[in-house]
C-alpha cells in the first residue's frame, strides 16, 4: 500500500502510475492553474490529469515546462494524462485529437490517454485509434473513462490491447463494487474522479467522526479510503493549502473496521452523469 506521495502502482503493461494525482477539471486556463500545477509538483505530486474538453491543456503544459525549468525534475518523472472528447471520437478524428492535445500541452508524448466517455457506436473505433498510438509508441499507456462492465465486454470482443486504466466516478456514496471487482479481475487499474463527490461528503457525520479519530480531515479520510481499495485518486484543487492537505495521506492507515464503515455509506449515488445515460 502507498506509503509515500510518489509511490506508484504498475499497470498491466509495466508502466508505473502514481497513486495520487492532481485533477484540473473545471479549472480555467490562466495563471491560477499554472501556479496550482507548479505548487503540486513542488509538493511532490508527479501526476496531472487533464482532458481536451477541460479547455486548459495549454496552461497545464506551460506549468509543466516552467516547473521542469525551475526544479530540474525530468519530464520522464511526471505522469500526464489527457482524454479524447466525445465529439472527436472515431478512428481518424481521435488520432487528430491526440495531436491537438500534444500541441496544446507542448509535449512529445502522453503517459496516459483515455476515451473520455463510452459514446455508443463510436468508442470501439476510438479504442482502435488508441491502440495505434500505443503500438507506434506515441503514448505510454491507454485506457478508458466512465466504462461500465458491459462497455468493457463490448470493447474486448475486438480489442487487441486491454485498457490499462478505467477512470470513473468513485467515492463513499458510489462505491462501484461490481465494477471494482471486475477491474481487479481483469488487471485494469481503477482511478477515481470526483473522489470527494464535489465536496458533498465533507460534512458527513460518520466521516467526520472517523477523521477526528485519526486527527485528519474528512477529505484526507476519503482519499485514504480510495487508496486502501487499490483505487488511484486525483482530487481537484487550485488552492495550494488544499493541494498540500490532500497529499497528507501517507502517514496513517484506516482500520478494516473504519474502511467497512465508510463502505456502508454507499447509496449508488452519482454527482455526475451515468455512463449509460448521457447526452453530450
From TrEMBL:
Keywords associated with the record: NADP, Oxidoreductase
Annotated ranges, domain NADP-dependent oxidoreductase: 20-266
Homology family: Belongs to the aldo/keto reductase family.
The protein's name in its UniProt record: Aldo/keto reductase
Organism annotation: Paenibacillus spongiae
